[in-house]
Amino acid sequence: MKPKRNWMRFTLGRAQDPGDRFVTTEVTLGHAPALARLMDVAYTGTIDHEGETLEQCLAEMRGTIEGKYGQLIKEASFVSLDGDSGASASLITLWKGHPLLAFSMTAPEFQGRGMAGFLIQKSLLALKNAGYKVLYLVLRDGGKAVT
Predict the structure, then answer these.
(1) Among residues 54, 7, 50, 38, which one has the least CA distance to residue 119?
(2) Which of 37, 69, 79, 128 could form a disulfide with 93 if both were Cys (CB 3.0 to 4.6 A apart)?
(3) pTM summary value
């Protein structure tokens, strides 16, 4: 049986600047290979892993950047790189007219440092500054939310 998906909604009124604790860049199609490797290592062994291969992860990241879940909101989608690999990422799309946190992922060796929370805070502030009022995300039962 597949885990239940739960929709959550965050209001952006209190979004604050997280500072510059980590080096980040806006996500582009050129980041797809690094994001695919990140997705593969971040999700393997978790409730979000559905047996995807690295090639499937690459197709998923390319698809996300190219609009599979609605247009990528580039000014609110960030990646922190470790060389040619992704350390952490926050990808925001415009799903049915509303911002959606399509992906938040952090490589295991970078977990516990606050990177995901930092990137999400950066995304929240960028969305607020762009005039959006809410952000949606989906969690599966047993999944973790970053606070």
Answers:
(1) 38
(2) 69
(3) 0.88
